[in-house]
Design goal:
The complex is a heterodimer of chains A (318) and B (337). With 318 residues, chain A is of the alpha/beta class. Helix content of chain A is 30%, strand content 23%. In chain A, the strands form two sheets. Chain A has an eight-stranded mixed sheet with strand order 6-7-8-3-9-10-12-11, sandwiched between helices. A four-stranded antiparallel sheet of chain A has the order 2-1-4-5. In chain A, α3 packs across α4, α4 crosses α5 and α5 runs parallel beside α6. Chain A starts with 5 loop residues before the first strand and ends in a 6-residue tail after the last strand. Chain B has 337 residues and is an alpha/beta fold. Chain B is 31% helix and 22% strand. Chain B is globular and about 70 Å long. The mean pLDDT of chain B is 89. Classes of the chains: A alpha/beta (318), B alpha/beta (337). At the A-B interface, α6, α7, α8 and α9 of A face α8, α9 and α11 of B.
């Protein structure tokens, strides 16, 4: 894979807790091209939010291990000092639309001022220039510039989410990470937001990482998809492969459990639960719930690269 | 009047309005959360109430459960209008109902063991005999497959996974052997792979006990698998009511059409086109627009009609009802089913 925008190599993020070390991100490797949208799908406890934290270096105090490489435009950001990362990377080259971000808007600031803030803080722009750019980015997300002077409570949920997306775009970052951007929204509002993201992708050739447990919504935007399980990537492929014909048994079962409105199908579920990230099992982490396990699964499989360009962490594809 | 023929639940022109307290600078009014809903629900049938936030679906369910008092109209359970029940009878009514809500962890008291949690409804309804309690607790835990029972009764909620917690909530809802279960977004806080498991469990329980189920959700994709009929709610009214397959095949109301068009299946082709979404937002429930409440956003609004008068109910297909002037040439229905 070319990976001309982002190359993540063996990224590890473990947290220290009173119960033990949580191996939230345990050797994640993938890459991304410019103007690509990558979906990272996983259920609770798979480590996807921790992956966001690891890439954006938004770390809490109880970090136990944080190693690996994150190459953005060929430069390993893991080697940057805190100060350099803050001034050059976070919210400059990489920004984040966090989960339930629309609730994080400061209620006592005007929305326009908040959206313009990254330019003032990270690029030293003066307020009037910053607001002019805020106006432009509001146009991109489909919010009237009348709303620049309003407060968060005057905006609906959907408009607040658009304001948050505007804030993530205003510094023209190379990469925007979206963590469950539509989970708290109604169906019609979700569809609207996905339209906004699609038009931004086309107009700006913006690259996105879209992290969620909502499989169907990601298909609206994503060129490639990765499934995470127990802190690792189980499968990575282009959207045709990922949505229509996954190879990893977990990915297959996951796709089979997504109810479809427009197509009748037999729904399946996966019995059992994902393993604890504190003491993950040795060998393949999905083996205990896998309908196709065999003797080799007692050893942890590597991430195999297949001829069709996809990656699968499963002995069935050796 | 034969008891056997009457539906378990009948709701007649129900309205639930909440009064707005007076502010210094704003007039008082009402939030008209449910504003004219009529339907019947027989035993053994699962009814899905689908709508977005603010559509009134939760308020409707809570009124049926007796948690809100109707402003007008009535909820009639087994032939008896709720408004005529005395206090003691209301408690007996509540034993006939089970409630499963969205947040399984929030629904379970964290400081009580599963046994205590399940015994509580029994105690409230004066079932104090230990043996009877144990037997019922065993019964429901077996049914929701939280087994071995002896293991699970000692556990506290935080020791259970999300799916197990929701099973515990369902067990609690079942323990008084209800006739109707109201499930409000029962799986929306659970992971994708667990949702189906819980919905299938609810379905099994429904079939085993011939329960009536009101299943509230905003997720239309799950509805075809778990309900016999679908009601689409918009701005405190049911704009379309139909058997599940009929609604999925013929979505008559423009709002229903918009909903169905907005929901993606996981298909990579979705990334290539934009979705058609009606502009605007659902209206205020304090001051809904005159006439049909969807008219400001409706691509097919008939000038001079839709913004003036609320449409009556029409029946373009058998058992399939829609509140929309586009169908004014079809059979007109006076009081719902």
């Amino acid at each position: 894979m070319a990976g001309n925008l982002l190359k993540v190599n063996d990224l590890v993020l473990h947290f220290r807790t009173t119960k033990g070390v949580v191996q939230a991100v345990d050797g994640v490797t993938f890459d991304m091209n410019r103007n690509e949208a990558l979906a990272v799908i996983g259920e609770s406890g798979c480590g996807k939010t921790s992956l966001v934290r690891a890439i954006l270096r938004l770390l809490p105090k109880n970090v136990h291990t944080y190693t690996g490489n994150v190459f953005l435009n060929g430069v390993d950001t893991m080697k940057y000092s805190e100060e350099r990362f803050r001034s050059e990377m976070r919210w400059v080259s990489m920004s984040l639309v966090a989960q339930a971000a629309m609730n994080a808007l400061n209620p006592v600031l005007r929305v326009g001022d908040q959206v313009a803030e990254p330019l003032v803080v990270h690029q030293g722009l003066r307020k009037p220039e910053a607001l002019a750019q805020a106006s432009e980015v509001f146009r991109l997300v489909g919010v009237s510039e009348d709303f620049l002077g309003r407060y968060a409570f005057e905006l609906s949920g959907g408009m607040r989410q658009r304001a948050i997306i505007a804030m993530a775009l205003i510094t023209k970052p190379d990469l925007v990470v979206l963590d469950e951007p539509t989970s708290a929204l109604d169906m019609l509002t979700q569809a609207n937001i996905m339209n906004v993201l699609k038009s931004i992708k086309r107009e700006l050739e913006q690259s996105f990482i879209f992290i969620t447990h909502d499989v169907a919504t990601t298909s609206e935007l994503c060129d490639r998809g990765a499934v995470m399980y127990a802190g690792q990537i189980a499968e990575l492929g282009n959207s045709q492969q990922f949505y229509l014909d996954p190879y990893h048994p977990y990915a297959q079962k996951l796709m089979a459990s997504v109810p479809t409105l427009h197509e009748k199908k037999e729904l399946e579920f996966i019995p059992g639960q994902p393993p604890s990230l504190i003491s993950p099992p040795t060998g393949c982490r999905f083996a205990a719930r896998c309908h196709r396990r065999f003797e080799m699964c007692d050893q942890e499989p590597p991430l195999f690269e297949l001829d069709d360009g996809r990656f699968v962490k499963c002995w069935l594809y050796k | 009047m034969q008891d056997r023929d009457q539906p378990l639940l009948a709701v007649q022109d129900l309205r639930t309005w909440f009064e707005l307290r007076r502010w210094v600078f704003a007039r008082a009014g009402y939030v008209k959360a449910v504003d004219g809903v009529t339907f019947e629900l027989p035993r053994g049938e699962a009814l899905a109430l689908v709508g977005e936030s603010g559509s009134g679906k939760t308020s409707l369910a809570r009124t049926v459960l007796g948690l809100y008092k109707p402003t007008s109209g009535d909820v009639v359970f087994e032939g008896m209008p709720l408004s005529q029940l005395k206090k003691g009878q209301m408690r007996a009514y509540r034993a006939d109902l089970g409630y499963v809500q969205q947040d399984p962890y929030g629904a379970l008291p964290p400081f009580l063991s599963l046994r205590s949690i399940l015994a509580e409804p029994l105690k409230v309804h004066r079932i104090r005999d230990k043996n009877e309690q144990d037997q019922r607790i065993n019964e429901v835990l077996e049914e929701v497959k939280l087994t071995p029972v002896s293991d699970f009764i000692q556990k506290f909620p935080h020791m259970l996974s999300g799916g197990q917690q929701q099973r515990a909530v369902i067990a609690r809802a079942m323990i008084l052997r209800p006739k109707l279960i109201a499930a409000d977004e029962p799986v929306s806080m659970l992971d994708a792979s667990v949702r189906i498991e819980i919905l299938k469990l609810l379905r099994r329980v429904q079939e085993a006990h011939n329960l009536a189920v009101i299943y509230i959700t905003h997720d239309l994709s799950t509805v075809r698998y778990f309900s016999e009929r679908i009601f689409i709610m918009y701005a405190a009214r049911t704009v379309e009511k139909a058997p599940t397959e009929s609604l999925l095949e013929y979505h008559f109301h423009p709002y229903t059409q918009a909903l169905l068009a907005a929901i993606p299946d996981p298909d990579p082709k979705n990334a290539e086109t934009f979705r058609d979404v009606p502009a605007g937002e659902p209206p205020s429930l304090v001051n809904p627009p005159p006439g049909c409440r969807f008219h400001p956003r409706c691509p097919h609004a008939i000038e001079g009609l839709c913004e003036v008068e609320q449409s009556p109910t029409f029946e373009p297909q058998p058992e399939h009802y829609v509140e929309c002037w586009l169908y004014r040439d079809e059979k007109r229905v006076e009081e719902g089913e």
